[in-house]
Design brief:
Bound molecules: zinc ion
Strand order of the largest sheet: 1-3-2
Oligomer: single chain
Radius of gyration: 17 Å
Number of domains: 1
CATH topology: Collagenase (Catalytic Domain)
Length: about 210
């Protein structure tokens, strides 16, 4: 059962966008806005970035096929649509992102109430801040599996395992919330999140683009 109103969802989205916006991060040129109205578009490349709550089936576009299903312990999934930048094949530009939230196995709250119990209520804004980080192209700050340890950070260091991560990593927006058994409330960026944001979207480069 979905217990948050549309107005509350819109407020949580707007606040989560503001956390990443340049007004709160003067070193970055990122501007993020929530469009008016709603759309019934699917997770498909259509030029519209969307947020959908899956309430009946936790699967891609809520479809019934086995192949479309997502793991039950996964809280959210963001599908990115990126294209290589012309003349720079190693650089991709993200043109669209569609977020799906698992409202089958979890509930989402906006009043700061979370729970680890059966109802598994998660803070909507915390989850959105993390997913918006993915939309901006940020990855997780730790490896969820041994396999993922082959990834390196921007300084060439291998990622630590999430299970061994210390408090600085755990209090960052890009600590993987998708499959966390706990329910943290993190409504701001950590110094590390902000550093990555500003490295990816420095204020001068974006000012030049306009
Ligand atoms: Zn994630």
């Amino acid at each position: 059962m979905f217990i948050v109103s549309e107005a509350e969802v819109r407020r949580a989205v707007a606040e989560a966008l503001a956390v990443w916006d340049h007004r709160n991060n003067p070193c970055s040129g990122v501007e993020l806005r929530l469009a008016e109205g709603t759309t019934d578009n699917e997770v498909v490349e259509d030029g519209v970035s969307s947020l959908s709550f899956r309430e009946e089936r936790w699967s891609r576009n809520g479809r019934a096929e086995v192949l479309a299903r997502y793991p039950a312990n996964m809280l959210a999934l963001t599908s990115l649509y990126a294209k290589p930048r012309p003349g720079q094949p190693m650089v991709a530009e993200i043109g669209e992102a569609d977020i799906e939230l698992n409202a089958v196995d979890f509930r989402f709250s906006t009043d700061g109430r979370v729970s680890q119990s059966v109802s598994r209520t998660r803070d909507l804004q915390t989850v959105l801040i993390h997913e918006i980080g993915h939309i901006l192209g940020l990855g997780h700050n730790c490896a969820m599996t041994e396999r993922e340890r082959r990834f390196v950070d921007n300084q060439g260091h291998r990622l630590p395992l999430c299970s061994a991560a210390g408090s600085a990593l755990r209090s960052a927006a890009m600590f993987p919330v998708e499959s966390l058994a706990t329910a943290p409330i993190l409504r701001d960026l950590s110094p590390d999140d902000r550093k990555v944001l500003c490295a990816l979207y420095p204020v001068r480069a974006s000012a030049r683009k306009r």
